[in-house]
Amino acid sequence: MTSVTASDESERRVAEALSARASGAPRGTPRPAPSGRARSGRAPSGTSLTTALLIALLAGAVLGSALALISLLAPGVLPPLG
């Protein structure tokens, strides 16, 4: 008569899980396979990066133009930088 301790049981469960994962057996609920149509709603990452860079460039141009107009039209409003 051998008694099974909690650590023996947990070791056995870990070993079973690792062997099942190594053999490619499904675990838990299966996930649906990704299809081309499922991702059609999202923009590719290259497009979103290009859009973000374009927005940053335009925001910088607007800020620079605003500071230039303030310094030209209202001298002394902006503090000197040096």
Describe this structure in words.
With 82 residues, this protein is mainly alpha-helical. The protein has a domain at 49-73. 57% of the residues lie in helices and 0% in strands. It is built from two helices and no strands.
Can you give me a brief rundown of this structure?
With 82 residues, this protein is mainly α. Helices cover 57% and strands 0% of the residues.
* Percent in strands: under 5%
Determine the oligomeric state from the structure: single chain
Helix content: 55-70%
- Let me know the average pLDDT: 79
Q: How large is the radius of gyration?
A: 31 Å
**Helix/strand order:** HH
The beta-strand count equals: 0
Transmembrane segments: 49-74
Region (Disordered): 1-45
Keywords: Membrane, Transmembrane, Transmembrane helix
